[in-house]
Write a structure and sequence with these properties.
single chain, 19% strand, globular
């Protein structure tokens, strides 16, 4: 039913460089070829800046592959875990047909300190938490890890073409 790509925060803070972007893109391309949905589990500090432009290009590359998945009428479910930030948030992590998040996970582009210093504003309570993002429409549901398997199965059963 689904191709699953999982980011590992324990390796280089889950940063997305050229290899990570290529692997995610290939997973999506395989899903299209095999007529499967895609689930991506994000846990990332963002783009791997030390790779420069090659890293930033992965944002467009992964989103382009997901556009082709959509054209094939196959579902994409994005699962955001703690933390999901930077270029990953600004690209594939937030464009799912369904965006799910784990309770209390941090979701954002820049960290709270950077946002506060840039905007010169006091941030609201709970800013950049899954709960805040649900309240403001960035994610569709918060699902605790023990309930994820059943929820993902139900969503895929509903979303997969016959």
């Amino acid at each position: 039913w689904a191709m699953i790509a999982v980011m590992d925060f324990k390796f280089f803070a889950g940063s997305m460089g050229s290899v990570v972007g290529e692997k995610i893109t290939r997973a999506i391309e395989t899903a299209i070829a095999e007529k499967r949905g895609v689930i991506i589990v994000s846990a990332s500090s963002g783009a791997r800046m030390q790779e420069g432009m090659l890293s930033l290009m992965q944002m467009a590359k992964t989103c382009g592959a997901l556009a082709r998945l959509s054209e094939a009428k196959l579902p994409y479910i994005s699962l955001l875990t703690h933390p999901t930030t930077g270029g990953v948030t600004a690209s594939f992590a937030t464009i799912g047909d369904i965006n799910l998040a784990e309770p209390k996970c941090m979701i954002g582009f820049a960290g709270p300190r950077v946002v506060k210093e840039t905007t010169h504003q006091t941030l609201p309570p709970g800013f950049q938490t899954a709960e805040f993002m649900l309240e403001h429409g960035l994610i569709d549901a918060i699902v605790a890890r023990p309930k994820l398997r059943d929820r993902l199965g139900s969503l895929l059963a509903f979303m997969m073409p016959e």
